[in-house]
## 1
Amino acid sequence: MATERSGGGDPVRTLALLWRRPAEPKPVGRKPKVSVDQIVVAAIAVADREGLGAMSMARVAQELSVGTMSLYTHVPGKGELIDLMTDAVLQERDLTPAGTWRERIKHYADRTRAVYQAHPWMRDVSMVRPPLGPGLMDGQEFVLAALADSGLEPKQVTVAHVAVEGFVHGAASSEVDDRQLEETTGESSDSWWGARQVFWEDYFDVERYPTMTNLWNANAYHTETTIADNMRSGFDYGLEKLLDGIEGGMR
Amino acid sequence: MATERSGGGDPVRTLALLWRRPAEPKPVGRKPKVSVDQIVVAAIAVADREGLGAMSMARVAQELSVGTMSLYTHVPGKGELIDLMTDAVLQERDLTPAGTWRERIKHYADRTRAVYQAHPWMRDVSMVRPPLGPGLMDGQEFVLAALADSGLEPKQVTVAHVAVEGFVHGAASSEVDDRQLEETTGESSDSWWGARQVFWEDYFDVERYPTMTNLWNANAYHTETTIADNMRSGFDYGLEKLLDGIEGGMR
DNA sequence: TATTGTTTCCGTATGGCCTACGGAAATGGG
DNA sequence: CCCATTTCCGTAGGCCATACGGAAACAATA
């Protein structure tokens, strides 16, 4: 399945839901069996356990012992529900502003990474038209504040923000992608690569790929670490170097 | 829809397809109406025009005027077909090794970005268990060769490789995500943000978001550029700073 | 030409998805 | 008790991937 798109519906309705601005309470009429909060929590639970692909309206309704169509009374549709789920988990970051600007950005990266680890389906959510809720906005403010404190010019802050945000979400996505594949396919990454041993035997061409061959012979790939560890250190290194570059560019 | 997973089938069969190692020609039996190449080309055409979500086996078969199940004679399943599509478009990069190591990495980034622009559905393909075909391998060799020429130690080359590859694919994905949303939803990004004007009026809290307020007042967001241009310059800036950092880290 | 072995083609069937529609059921006030 | 209001939810339509197995096409042989 391709990436889930959200944020397509009526902005006024969706924003009111994201910020939980309640419609004035209804004095009459049938009592609701479920609330928006319950639906969001149940949907997150299903997606955490079985992936976003399994998070169908029917499945969430089942989780709540309610008919499928009842959900549509409280939530406009599936896209908006994903918006609500996304902002809810972003709020879990609970960012604490302390330390140098670099430390705060690393804190942001760590907390964001933790969200992705806890909710791997975040990998499948597009963030180019994000839910404009408190979870997203608080994160943006946090990163912008750190970058502003670094001494960058205002215009540079906004440019650097795009770069940092892109790197963090991209890195978190890739890491989680790996972990999620292990769960959904039931095959570990190491096993997957092992099953493709035949590639190196039958298809790898030493003449065509001299650099890879050299690196192999230099033992650059002979580590005790797992695939996941390699990705993690690659991204840690990348963020460090990106911040080095940003810092160095100011002089 | 969530991200498409591929590479799940029999590795031997999939590798033979990726490298077009033909089974020995069949002298007898019914003549095939379609070839693997035709199927891949048709699938890419459908995905280019209508997105990966619309690229169903039935839709591809229709494109070729063939029954749906006929495809399964030539391709094990949908996952493997996506592998073949992916490697095919990666081959379009046609990388030319010239210039300094930095210039070559930027060349790689540009060519990869061009592939994503031409085939926006690449955003929806997971690259953590990539198709081990010529398109992918040539790209890896190219980046590794550039990094090795930069003077990094072998072990550092492999770490930096993860960071660069992650950044480039992440950046290309985000850019294309934006473009693809414009096509599939029929609403431009500028229009989408415009429709959320109400957010700034009804929900934005100046006290809660002082940095954003300051940046706004400093005219940091008052540019003539589009969303897409902003993303592009953010990622160009980020790659530049990342390479600065890698270069600086060697001294 | 008729037969046989081999390969490809493809119709059917299963179980899932989202959500428009509209009637049934519950609730509080008069 | 009645009725306006609100929520609940069954049905129905049109998509998806692919297992299975028989029909059809083709080359070599008799």
## 2
Amino acid sequence: MASLPSVVVGNTLKLESEFRKHTSTSLPFEKRNFTTTHLDKTLEPVCLDFREALSVIKDGPNFESSVYAMSIGLQVHSLSIKLGYESNLRVTNSIMYLYLKCGWISDAKKLFDGMEKISLITWNAMIAGHAQMMDIAEDSLSAHRSGVEALNIFLRLNRSNMKPDIFTFSSILTVCSSLVALEHGEQVHTQTIKTGFLSDVVVGTALVNMYSKCGSIKRASKAFVEMSTRTMISWTSMITAFSQHGRSQQALQLFEDMRLVGVRPNQITFVGVLSACSHAGLVDEALNYFEMMKKEYKIKPVMDHFACLIDMFVRLGKLDEAFEFVKKMDFEPNEVIWSLLIAGCRSHGNLELGFYAAEQLLSLSPKDSETYVMLLNMYLSAGRWKDVSRVRKMMRDEKLGKLKDWSWISIRDRVHSFKPDDRSCPPCGEVDILLGDLLEKARPLGYESQGSLEVTDEKDEETTFSSIHHSEKLAVAFGLLNTPNASPIRVMKSISMCRDCHNFFKFISVLTAREIIIRDSKRLHKFVNGHCSCGDFGSLL
DNA sequence: TTAGGGTTAG
């Protein structure tokens, strides 16, 4: 293998500093003084040490800058071919990571398919790259597709003559968590035991996270206890896991244990801690930890921390205090903060504050379909027709269509998808019969179908209709029919659950004596014996 | 001497 050019004509550092200058700014993307021509000029005299240049590009702090970095990446790629490094695995693998990180999936595939020889790192790049695609995907649908593709690549790797390593395992476990694919995750767990890679702290942490995200707090906790070493991230994962499962006391206890053994928490740890307080309505504790974070650990609060605190006040119905906190922030509230307040105002009947928050939210020109639908529902139920048509017009202007309601359930080696308007998906007859049957049984127990508001894309008018065919209902029914009695049902959903479905699953969990775990676009819902781990709060459509 | 992996609220 030819060695890489270590003598740099021009200056790699120059490229680095230019790149940093344009990406570390807090200016909104469109206001940055940043042009490709400018970068071309920077790049021109640079005959690169490819690794260094690429690592600079890949570490771009956000998606937009990464996309811009592609203009450099492409040039580096073609330069690498011109200079004869096409078959240099280190170079090619780096370029693969770059493409995948920037979301250029087809280019990565083209590169992968065209490579004469590949190494384990190439496989790992493809898997980790698809895993990261899940995070930057525009919607849950494409995120899900990336995840499934990552699983397929992992299967292909297993069938090849190469063996996965710690990097493969940690990536694929993350994919399993995002897909709520417990059975795949369990298989990977077994593999990590057989290969001895489970002792790796990153693999162990990924395993904790996988079990938690798949709804099994018991096994997450077991995996955590069995780790021989733990990093701050391992502790944070477990704290967050307890918090997400509504086990606030355990989350806080674990945080104290973490401090006791001298592991320093970070910003993300405190998000877990504060959200645990929020779930349990522990106002004093939350405020104490907030102070501790600032004073003892010198961690600057970010929007996420405020969101936890505001969420806490909103849950308790203390809307004025929530608003006070919003005013106290050093920065402008974002879409999430206003949405929290609006949801709170709706459930606690404080419409005036809700309308005020809605105006603030609209002035941020949100791009998220779900936000618009939430606003639309709010105005509709208040009979504010002027506002209804205003929001509709904004949605038209933003070219936002109907919410894409998809759900997935992973059973054994297969992932099954469901969408409400597709009556051709898996055996629909049986699913319909079961749903009808459950509906009949739920009514005497007190279930009332509420119907739900939805926005149609073509006719530009809302219709109220039964939510009986919402995708997660189909997926859960399919799961009930195709898994052993008493085993939990795990479903992933592309958008927020609606109130009606949320209510319905409580009854189903009683009627079928099953745990029903649904991860929607917002959070984890675990229905056990008529109750949901979200405490019936949270942004339901 | 190596390109690569794990944690964030609603």
## 3
Amino acid sequence: MPELPEVETVRRGLEKMILGAKIEHVKVLYPKIINGDPSDFCRLLQEREILSLDRRGKYLIFNFSGDLSMISHLRMEGKYFVKKSSDPLEKHTHIVFFLHNGRQLRYNDVRKFGRMELVPTVQRYEVAGIKKLGPEPTAALFDATSFFANLRKKKKVIKTTLLDQTLVAGLGNIYADEVLWLSRIHPETPACNLTEDDAKLLHDNIIAELAKAIKAGGTTIKTYTDAFQHSGSFQFDLHVYGKKGKPCERCGTSIEKIVVGQRGTHFCPSCQKVK
DNA sequence: CAAAGTGTTGGCTC
DNA sequence: AGAGCCAACACTTT
């Protein structure tokens, strides 16, 4: 499910619904979701107020009163819902945060890949995973010159490089395929073979495409919904992801699907050539 | 029924 | 030390 635009959409939804809410207690139904001791997790969260919500890359960060933060990664299928306590518990809801106003924040995750952990707020950007993230994909933070310099040091192919989060944060499998198509770069091009013009174009497309996807409320392929259980609409703006066998919008060539770094990868064999 | 799926991590090798 | 590769995680859908 969630790449940066989807996580940001979830963050904005939660911000509207649970800011200022107080946690009375927490129930952990599937302990492996929690990094660290689940009973410590529940105990530490009691009586905390939800002060703000941050995001870094695909990580959601809940900031509580008393210098405590919760780092939450949704991985493939994680979702948050806000429900009344009387609403029946959904299948695959694994963590329930009981709020003071008779509502519950519920974490739901079919594949149970998501993880959450508590850290002092001052350390929230220092945890493993977040610490190694590249810059946020915005004009203010993501610099084209250093992006090009970093690409030249990478021996991996460009698709794998974009997915590893270290040169720029937030791209996942869908948006990686999309920005490579927009930039006319073959996903298996070694990152170090990209020209400065390629890097600049890719840089600009990454910033523009993720911003556009946030505006659309993210991409719903199978199951993604935001905290209001609303679908996104960016799936209607996709050019190659899920378009195997369909004509390329630029040249009419049939879109191909291959596997790159264990991930399904879509591209146009005619306008994206390996260099 | 086998395979693939929106993501990261840990263990391995070089 | 650091980069790169790949299996593992758990369950549903095709």
